[in-house]
Target: Proline--tRNA ligase
Amino acid sequence: MKMSRLIGQTRKEAPAGTSARSHELLLRGAYIHQVAAGIFSYLPLGQRLMQKISAILRREIEAIGGQEVNMPVAQPADLWQQSGRWYKIGAEMSRFIDRKGHDMALAMTHEETTGDLVHQFIQSYRDLPRLIYHLQTKWRDDPRPRAGLIRVREFVMKDSYSLDSSWEGLEQQYRNHYSAYFRIFDRCGLPVMAVLSDTGMMGGSIAHEFMYPGEVGEDTILFCPDKDCGYSANRQVAKFQKPVPVKEPLSPLEEVATPNCKSIAEVSQFLRVEPNHCAKMVFFVASLTYPEGQTRKQQQTQEQNGQKLVAAVLPGNMELNETKLTTLLNSLFGVRELRPAEEAEIAAAGAVAGYASPVGLQTEDCIVVADELIIAGSNWIGGANKEGFHVRGLNYGRDFEAQQVGDICAAAAEHPCPNCGKKMESTKAVEVGNIFQLGTFYSEAMDCYFTDESGQEKPIIMGSYGIGVGRLAACIAEQHNDEDGLIWPISVAPYQVHLLSLAGAKEPEAEKVAQQIYRDLQAAGIEVLFDDREERPGFKFKDADLIGIPIRLMIGKRSLENGGVEYRLRGRKQGKETPKTFWPVADVVNRTGMEIARLEEEIQSAVRNVEYRA
RNA sequence: CGGGGUGUAGCCUAGUGGCUAAGGCGUCUGCUUUGGGAGCAGAAGAUCGGGGGUUCGAGUCCCUCCACCCCGACCA
Model:
């Protein structure tokens, strides 16, 4: 590709409103162009980057038996009604009505269309196992797109779907993906950690996320520093060894005046007790799942009605984990949404914010959920549901009860590892991939059954596995850059070679050599970006640094005088100690080919075979 | 959805009630220059996000709508 003809202009200055390094560099390097919040066009360089990454994804998924298909972005509502997600998912799914008046949805993911395919084409145990995958656009109307390609609304995802007749088969395909994902990220030069994760809207039982650790991430993950232990989990589901409270003889419930003590910190200081003796209350309002078969109008009406106040009780030295709370609540009823309650809503249930207690809260519309520590412990300090007063000697069972008991505490750094008890560490991270054991939820809902050896009808056992291509590109950019610009690993670089003609107007010879080398490299099948523009050398160097293609070849009067073509690796500083490298013109194609092979070998040798670890 | 911020030429910015909206980058023309974003001369490019209002006068103040960014809620 000749740069004189390339669409997209590089920029010296960072566009306003970029906070992530990858966002800034991808914009400045003319890789992407923002069309609206979370919606991007990919310019030629960006598109080639995406295709390189896609090629890696295809290669590794095919290697574990994947067959590429293509499922649609526009989907009939029936499919989503069958799975029930039409009723469970809120505004994140965009819906529209086609000209015939049919409800339609834009694909957020493709479990439903997979079910549709499977229903049609898989009937017998002989048709299993199978693995299908595609690279297709997803639309998720995210309320808060941010940081360039890190969090967008429209994006291409590699998603695969495994189909099995047995749970052992699912386990095998799940493990295959687990290892394949590590190979994919290794090939992209991206360090990741696999962590246990929440199943969220996907449903299913077991799930892992592949996390790229870094400040640009929004997730927090916890992990055990002990390599042999290896426990790691998203904060949303992370467990930890909780201190077991000593059960004391129950003391009587008594009110104490605690003027102006609304927070746990204030109360514990005022009463001179440790926060872990206080019972903390956190209030939420849960919106319930729409009953199946409801029209959208009925759903809108239900918005106001189908809500319940949730009062969570946990020790004062712990933070509440909303995901754990939601999961617990889901065992009682379907939760579509959980949001913090407002003071008026809390008051309506008879509680006083700041002095709240679970005592006397069991009304029709209020659900009390208690952490297991509250049950195990005794004689808690809690609110009196009366402005300016708390109580001592608050005890579960005697003074109050909960509809649901479980673990609702958030794990944090320093908490003991649930496996080995060592202090865990935490880091922020970006989710670049996930794998889910879906089980039979979708196959049962969407009538995907097969006949087994004994002639019995059984639901197909499914798994689903995703990697966001654009987000992956952004993470690679986050990982591989310096003050001058991007530094792509050769495996994903839009071109393997950046050829710069540094010939001035009075140096037609050098220009001719550059043109010839460009043609020779192309003829040899080497991907080359040729800077043939009429610009000064310095200008071209800056652009080449910004764009970040790994191998740079430079031809000018000076290089010819020094023996031919100057070779340089992007990202390797050309200090006084490292002498410049020149290749004879006749050798350039050969040497370049060898250099590409060497760089590819470097990547290849970094590809690990990571064994599955639950 | 809540809080904060920003909208001025393709990009980055200045302009804080008063003359024809200013500069840099980029673009175009010519000359000159050619190993780390050169120099000179000239040119084009803006209904100052939209609408409404206050005022003799609004890019500037007020209202309103929209868009984008950041934080939170949210999503994964």
The mean pLDDT of chain A is 88. Residues 167-187 of chain A form the longest helix (21 residues). Chain A is about 30% helix and 25% strand.
